[in-house]
Amino acid sequence: MELFLVVVFGGGFLLFLIIFITIYNSLVGLKNHIRESWADIDVQMKRRYDLIPNLVNTVKGYAAHEKVVFEKVVEARNRAFANNGRYGSQALDENQMLQTLKTLFAVAEKYPELKANENFLKLQQELVDTEDKIAAARRFFNGNVRDYNNKVQMFPSILVAGMFGFKIEDFFEVEDDAVRKAVKVAM
To answer: What is the pLDDT of residues 42-97, one digit of tens each?
Structure first.
């Protein structure tokens, strides 16, 4: 009888240990998926940051008197580029940068010769392509955050998450309803 109880309790403890390790490893895996998908967004945002100065310089040649607009775009770009904080903080700076880019494109609308410039058109197309890639990467990131947050909040993994300090992650969201609309690039 004693051997039977030892086997039952030992088997139960082993089963508990296997479940515990499986839950912990899945939480770690999901957390790493979030980091990886954030790195994908980061790569695309850096590409965008590299495109913006070229775009500003191209527009400057046609609209030199729009100095305030250029300064705001460059300032917003630099602030977003320098932000290495949490996802929500980065999203705020990204949203502000998108707003200033809209202003830059509004300035470009005033200059038909600029809108026909081959460099400007190429930069616009590259920026649109980059924005599409950022949107796709953001969807992938937010899917990973959703899966992770579900795991952190559901039973029994909530117990393991609580013991090891796994916290809910922020989605990379657009705050301003105006920014939720696609960036309109007129050709």
So the answer is: 899 999 999 988 888 888 877 777 778 888 888 998 998 888 877 778 888 888 88
Looking at residue 31, the DSSP 8-state letter turns out to be H
d(CA 30, CA 57): 42
83: left (phi over 0), alpha (psi -120 to 50) or beta: beta
Please report where in the chains the tokens 């809108």 appear, as a residue: 115
Eight-class DSSP state of 155: T
DSSP 182: P
Amino acid at 21: I
Token pair belonging to 1:
């009888």
What's the one-letter identity of residue 137?
A
Dig out the tokens for 116 from the structure: 């026909």
pTM recorded for the entire structure = 0.77
Our measurement of the distance from residue 172's CA atom to the centroid of its chain's CA atoms, rounded to an integer in Å, reads: 5
Q: For 84, left (φ over 0), alpha (ψ -120 to 50), or beta?
A: alpha
